[in-house]
Amino acid sequence: MRGSRNFVARSQAWAMLETLSDDDLAEIAAPFAAGGVVQCPTLAVMQGIVEYAAETDGPMLRYVPANMREFWASGNYAEYGRAMKAQVPGMRRFVGVLHRAGVPIIAGTDLGNPNVIAGYSLHRELELLVESGLEPIDALRSATITPARLFGLHGPGGLGTIEDGVEATLLLVTANPLEDIAATRAISAVVHRGEYLDRAALDGLLEDAARAAAGEQGLVDGGFDLLAQEMPGEPVASGVYAMTFGGFAAGTESFRITRADGVYHLSVHNQPKGGGQMPYALTITTDDAGRFAEATYTTLGDSPTTSRYWREGDTLIAESAGERQELALSEDALIAGPAMVSDFCVLPHLEMQVGESRVFQGYSFGFPNWKWSTVANTVTRLPDETSGTGADAETRRVFRQSMDIPGFGRFEVTSVIDDLGVPVRTSTKMPFGTMETTRGPLVSPTPEDD
Prior knowledge:
Strand content: 25-35%
Number of domains: 2
Strand order of the largest sheet: 11-10-9-8-7-6-5-4-18-17-16-15-14-13-12
Number of helices: 10
Order of helices and strands: HHHHHHHHHEEEHEEEEEEEEEEEEEEE
Helix content: 10-25%
Oligomer: single chain
Distance between the termini: 51 Å
């Protein structure tokens, strides 16, 4: 199965564990224990997908926003779930083998997948770990002291145990989880960083979460209409990028570009689907050379926030909610926003030959927060590609940007740009998956019939 790129096909290998004895599996597990490997199985995501395929409609779905449920329904999760039903027992069996071999197990859930719901899914993971052969005390350790030690967070002021000098973050439950791990759900109160929340307060938070999921607050874009935004000058380009992640619909990014007095104006509306990201509106204004000059970045939700960015000589400045950041620019700077179309301010200006690679200092905002962030960006010009035939043929330039982002890993962005310099499509390879975007036309929404 190793050479297959098909997730369903690869997952079939788990069913083959039934052909192996416990001794065979222990032999496989031994090098992991000897090598100091830590295992985070995320069984909850596999079980969640299986249950999604069975079309379960549990009470916890009231805490899931509609855009997340649409994301689950837009891909092949139901197909995956039906195929994976026979694989999950093998996964659980191997977790037990690893545990008995001495491999530390830590609890994780892979939030955002079907039936993997914040909070609820961690309790489910603990139950699945016990079903896999861990004792309840070991399952509790997998979510407390073991990860705290692994990440260097245990000790004075840290996490993972209940003792003097450690941060007071804990659950109070009405039954004994050492006898039944499901007792972790019987929560009477939570102490979070020293703040005591009784059952009434917790129920209030749950109601807030339900209202947010129903669209009364939270991840909504407030009816933002890109086409209604006034933009100076003459139209240059417009379009909509359809985003997919791992083959699943992941939202859209609409854009418009105009030009006035030699300066370009970009307006963007990003509407993600799944993953819990906030929709946002972005504007970028270039200088007369077509490079970044200033921008605004507005998160669209129940409490919109707007951040401003601009360049003064060799200094980049950002302001948001009364905070200010100033950053010195290097001579080899590439400045862009978080949107795909913002490469319009970067890639067309690179005078590079096919096959040439250069290292620049990249500057961007909106990821992981509102501030400017910097990272070394290795840009390579790949062979051109041709679109169309005959008189309609168009040569498109292709660039790859490679960045090692601290805390996230290596990102590789391949962009195909048209003769105006506007990306036609992009592919972003990340440690946790690949995001693909394809540009289509921007059209006015059609009102639905009454």
